Amino acid sequence: xxxxxxxxxxxxxxxxxxxxxxxxxxxxxxxxxxxxxxxxxxxxxxxxxxxxxxxxxxxxxxxxxxxxxxxxxxxxxxxxxxxxxxxxxxxxxxxxxxxxxxxxxxxxxxxxxxxxxxxxxxxxxxxxxxxxxxxxxxxxxxxxxxxxxxxxxxxxxxxxxxxxxxxxxxxxxxxxxxxxxxxxxxxxxxxxxxxxxxxxxxxxx
Length: 205
Description:
- It is a single chain.
- By secondary structure, this protein is an all-alpha fold.
- The chain is about 85% helix and about 0% strand.
- It has 7 helices and no strands.
- It has helices at about 10-30, 40-55, 60-100, 105-130, 135-150, 150-170, 175-205.
- About 30% of the residues are buried.
């Protein structure tokens, strides 16, 4: 029992990770405040999460600050591209829907394109947080990997949907926990899926 609660025990390890995720979640939300820097903050979030998984204990504030600085320009560019692309797709859907009076046959290709974009977007910022790549290379890799590993990418999307959207809507009593842990816990759980994708891609090469 003493070993169970010792510094090297499982309880201490879990509590340590939760404390790191709490700190990381708050830093992430602060990093998103200018709105334009959401992409930078997301990439930095994943970078630190990957480090926590690899090392166990990290100095979250120092790692996030460094990651934020290093990802600033790429994050701004990637966020502008993602936001612009989704805005254009939603506008296209609205225009096509009005022009065809909601003809499902015409709208299906647009919906498929939006779905592909959503899957690719799930991998853009984890790739930016994991690898030192240019913006075009990140976009190509995200699209390629999302199509090759649809199941893992879709599971990551569903995980994000449940924690970020469903829980605050249908379990309002958990708002307190949601505010302090939602984003970092989501990224931490998703990181297992993303690491599987990255490992499979590395073995394939």
